[in-house]
Amino acid sequence: MSLASEELHLKSSRFRAEREDDWKRLERLLARVERGSLRSLSADEIVSLTVLYRATLSSLSVARATSLDRAVVEYLESLSTRAYFFVYGARTGFLSRLARFFAVDWPLAVQGLWRESLVALLITILGAVAAYQLVSHDPDWYYAFIPRDLASGRDPAASLAALRRSLYGTPDFNSVLSTVAAELFNHNARIAIFAFALGFAFGVPTVMLLLYNGCMLGAFLALYFTHGLGFEVVGWLFIHGVTELSAIILAGAAGLKIGWTLAFPGARSRADAAGAAGREAALVMCGAVIMLFFAGILESFARTLITNDWARYAVASLTAAIWGAYFYWPRRRMADG
After folding, report:
1. Which of 35, 70, 80, 331 has the greatest number of C-beta atoms within 10 Å?
2. Number of helices (H) and strands (E), helices first, in the chain?
3. What's the CA dihedral at 218, 306, 329, 256 to 10 degrees?
């Protein structure tokens, strides 16, 4: 060991010996809080937690300035981060954090992804237009976009009467309505989660999934439009589709955000840039799953119970107005604490 290294080691050892007791006390208090809650501490211990936290920050500052042992610096950084959450973050309860998520965090995250949302929407529209044109000119293309088992009889071979019944038929309430909402939610949630998760592959699979989802939509619309049921199918579809498609587009936008950041991290390291993008995208994704839950309810109940075309259009327009105002109404970020 060189003389300089030995001197640095001795300096680090003395520094640690002088202050380690405070670090350990802080660590023990944090361990108690993490096992229970901040209420498990007495008033004096809460005061001590704050004082020890500031003392640890002071130690961290000295350790960084004097280039002490890297292990000591990393230990103090980790300890300070843990303490910060309880000193500054624990003042907000679960209900307050939940209210903040719905009132500010989620809509602001969606606003931050407006470019990616627009791209995801355009990709979906591109797929829908392409599939609509193909199916309109050659019905056999329908099966390239919608598997036969998923079509459930709603395919080019179906009669006009059968297609009309699929829009207005009344299901067996005892055997269908009680389970279909959960099934539709699970199906749509998988699509949205894949669109989000595949963003880590530089967004390419996300683009393909959005494009294919648009193709399914276009092929389905083409089937009904070519049978003269265009007005009817749009109302039937968009009574829930406004919410469902919006959720999938937002999930796709979150995936595109991550993919773009990984491909072009800018001045930051790829890991740091991806971490920041991932936190923002995760907020959007959590909200998208909530939207899919409501879409499942609308799809299985409102769409079945409401059989008047104009009423379906009214519900679709109302949901579009509500989501648009909720996400893009100007709001300011709330202060932490």
Report:
1. 80
2. 15, 0
3. -30
Helix axes 230-263 and 204-225, enclosed angle (nearest 10): 170
**What is the C-alpha to C-alpha distance for residues 126 and 135, in angstroms, rounded to an integer?**
14
Which residues have CB under 8 Å from 266's CB, separation 6+?
273
Residue 334 inside a domain? The answer is: no
In a domain, 238, yes or no: yes
**Quick one: pLDDT at residue 321?**
97
Read off the tokens for 194. Answer: 């894949």
Q: Read off the pLDDT of each residue in 294-317 and give the average, rounded to a whole number.
A: 88
- Could you tell me if 323 and 216 lie in one domain? yes
pLDDT-derived band at 175 (thresholds 50, 70, 90) equals very low
Please report the pLDDT score of residue 125 as a whole number: 97
Of the residues 91, 123, 139, which one is the last residue of a structural domain?
A: 91
Q: What is the pLDDT of residue 151?
A: 73
Using alpha carbons, select from 220, 216, 241, 230 the residue that is nearest to residue 309.
230
Per-residue confidence (pLDDT) for residue 178, from 0 to 100: 42
CA 138 to chain centre: 38
Co-location of 133 and 211 in the same domain: yes
CA distance 196 to 250: 9
Domain count along the chain:
2
Q: Cβ atoms within 10 A of the Cβ of 86, count? A: 20
* Beta carbons within 10 angstroms of residue 168's beta carbon: 12
- Domain end call among 30, 64, 91: 91
User: Do residues 79 and 156 both lie within one domain?
Assistant: no
* Pair (9, 54) in one structural domain: yes
Mark whether 34 and 111 lie in a shared domain: no
Q: Please state the pTM of the whole predicted model.
A: 0.71
Q: Same domain, yes or no, for 80 and 107?
A: no
Alpha-carbon span 108 to 89, nearest angstrom: 20
- For residue range 207-232, list pLDDT tens digits in order: 999 999 999 999 999 999 999 999 99
Tell me the angle at which helices 230-263 and 309-328 cross, rounded to the nearest 10 degrees.
20
Please answer whether residues 235 and 312 qualify as being in contact, where contact means their C-beta atoms are separated by less than 8 angstroms: yes
The amino acid occupying position 97 is R
Q: 104 and 74 share a domain?
A: no
